[in-house]
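Dear colleagues,

For the upcoming journal club I promised to circulate an example of a predicted protein-ligand complex. I picked one with NAP because it came up in last month's discussion. The inputs are reproduced below in full, followed by the predicted structure.
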Amino acid sequence: MSAVVMDGKALAAEIKQALRKRCAALSRPPRLAVVLVGDDPASAVYVRNKEQDCAQCGISCADHRLPSGTSQAELLALIDTLNRDEAVDGILVQMPLPAHLDAGQVLRAIAPAKDVDAFHPENVGLLHLGQPRYLPCTPAGILALLKKYGIDPAGKHCVVVGRSNIVGKPLALLLLQADATVTVCHSKTPDLADQCRRADILVSAAGQVGLITADMVRPHAVVIDVAMNRGADGRLCGDVDFGAVAQRADYITPVPGGVGPMTRAMLMENTYQAALGRESR
Ligand code: NAP
C-alpha cells in the first residue's frame, strides 16, 4: 500500500482531549440535549456514541427518548422547552425521524444559537455568506483532517460526489471558501469516472458500495471516503475500493476510523462554542 492512511480516530481523540480542558475552563460544563424518537437500532448506537463523546469532553448530555408514536406537536413542544431552558446549550435531534414526522419543520424549530448540527436555515444561510455561526460537522471534520495532514485545498481541484444538504453541498462551500476549485457530482452526472479523475482531492459521499474504483482516481490524489455502508458481508465500508485505491492515491481515509469520528468531534466543538457564546452574552 502506498497511500498514507488518514487517521480520523486519532485526530478526533486529540481534539476531544483538548476540548476537555477548554470545557473545564467554562463557568459550568456545556450541556447537549439529544432527542431520539423511536427505536431505530442504528440511531440508538449513534446516540450512545455521542453520549460517550460528551463524557470524554466533560460535556453534560441530556437524553430525551420519545416513543415512535410521538406526534409532531409533542416533539415541537419538547424542542420549545429545550430552546427556553437556559441550562441547555446545544440541541440535536437524531435523524432519521419516523416517517409521520416532518423533519424540516422540526429542524427549523430549533433555536439557531442551539443548532449545533448547523442544519437550521439561518445557520445554512450564514455558512453560504462565509460567516458561519457553527460549521456543519462532517464537512468541518474533513477540513480538519486535511489540515492535520498538511493538505491545503487552496488552488486544488476538489471533486465532491454527492449533493446532500448535510454533506455534499456544505462541503463544496467550505472547500470553495478555502480557495479550491470545486466540482459537485451526483447521480445524474454523466461520466462520473472522468470527473473523478480530474480531482486532486476526491471526496465520495454517495452511500454506494464500490462506487469509486482505482481507475477513477488520479495518481497521487487525496481520497476522502465519507460513506458508511454495509457491505455484502454485513461489515461497515465506504464508497471507495480501499485496497486498490490506496495503491494509487497519496492519502486515503479508512472506513471506519476516518471521517466518522471527526464528525462526532466537530459536534463536541460546536457544543463547546454554543456554551462559550452563552457565557459571553
Ligand atoms: P444522501 O442524502 O443519500 O445523498 C447521496 C448523494 O450521493 C446524492 O446527492 C446522490 O445523488 C449521490 N449519489 C448516489 N449514488 C450516486 C452515484 N451512483 N453516482 C453519483 N452520485 C450518486 O446521503 P448523505 O446523507 O449525504 O450521506 C452520504 C453517505 O455518507 C452515506 O453513506 C452516509 O451514511 C454517509 N455519512 C457519513 C457521515 C460520517 O460522519 N462519516 C456523515 C453523514 C453521512 P442525487 O442527489 O442525484 O440523488
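Two points we might discuss: Residues 138, 161-164, 166-168, 185-189, 192, 205-208, 211, 226-229, 259-260, 263 surround NAP (CB under 6 Å). Residues 76 and 204 are 34 Å apart (CA to CA).

See you all on Thursday,
B. R.
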